[in-house]
Every structure is written in structure tokens, then in C-alpha cells.
Amino acid sequence: MKKSLQIGSAGGKKSPQPPNTIMADSEDKNSSNVSGKFYVDSQCIDCDLCRETAPNNFGRAEDEGYSYVLKQPVNDEETAQCREAMEGCPVEAIGDDGDD
Ligand code: SF4
């Protein structure tokens, strides 16, 4: 398991961290996501955009009130819809880990 260490002056180079960048966090995925490249993290505000944009791939956890990936895309159309949802998510809660 990967751990993030935040060490100020350990002698190595500091990684640049843009202060105002919000990105989905692959270590903070909602537990309901199916495994695979796309995921939703805990920043989701349940706005419904992804479920409208990619209805085959995103579902709603009714009790918790957030979206999750219920199925990874299996064709180009679904992949495009997932990408569109990721780009449109207002809080950047959707991530893409790349290869699955
Ligand atoms: S678009 Fe983003 S904030 Fe809206 S429901 Fe989907 S994951 Fe949540």
C-alpha cells in the first residue's frame, strides 16, 4: 500500500504541489466503486451530472448520497461518456487511474 509522506527537508527535491488544484484522490475512493480505471472519491456532492452523462457507468449510493462507478466502460462510447463526466464534475471527484 502506498503512503504519502510530507517531509519538509529530507534532503531530496520537493515535488511541486499546485496550491489550488483539486483532483480526485485514488486513495480516497468511495467504497462502492467497482475496481478499474474510473472511480469517484469522497469529494462527490451528489450533483447527478455524471449519472446523467454516463448513465451506464455511474450510479448513486442512495443511503450515503454520493455517486460511484457501477460499471467500467466497455466500449468507446462509454469511455467518452465517462471522460465527459470526469471533465464536467464540479468538484473533480471523478478520477481516471489510466490503464486498468
Ligand atoms: S458529477 Fe461529480 S459531484 Fe456530481 S454526482 Fe458525479 S461525482 Fe458527484
Overview of this protein structure:
The protein has 100 residues and is α+β, with helices and mostly antiparallel strands. The chain has a domain at 34-96: Alpha-Beta Plaits. Helix content is 18%, strand content 14%. The strands form 2 sheets. The protein has a two-stranded antiparallel sheet with strand order 1-4. β2 (58-61) and β3 form a beta hairpin. The radius of gyration is 15 Å and the shape is globular. The model is unreliable at 7-12 (pLDDT under 50). Bound molecules: iron/sulfur cluster. Iron/sulfur cluster (SF4) binds next to α1. Iron/sulfur cluster (SF4) binds at residues 40, 44-50, 67, 89-91, 93-94.
Key terms:
Alpha-Beta Plaits; two-stranded antiparallel ribbon; 100 residues; two-stranded antiparallel sheet; alpha+beta; 14% strand; 2 helices; binds iron/sulfur cluster; 18% helix
Brief sketch in words of this structure:
This protein is an alpha+beta fold and 100 residues long.
Beta-strand proportion: 5-15%
Taking pLDDT < 50 over at least 5 consecutive residues as the criterion, the unreliable ranges are 7-12
| Helix count from the secondary structure assignment | 2
| Euclidean distance between termini CA atoms | 17 Å
Would you tell me which CATH topology of the domain at 34-96 applies? Answer: Alpha-Beta Plaits
Chain-wise SSE layout:
Layout lengths: L37 E3 L8 H5 L4 E4 L4 E4 L6 H13 L5 E3 L4
Antiparallel strand pairs: 1-4, 2-3
The structure holds iron/sulfur cluster.
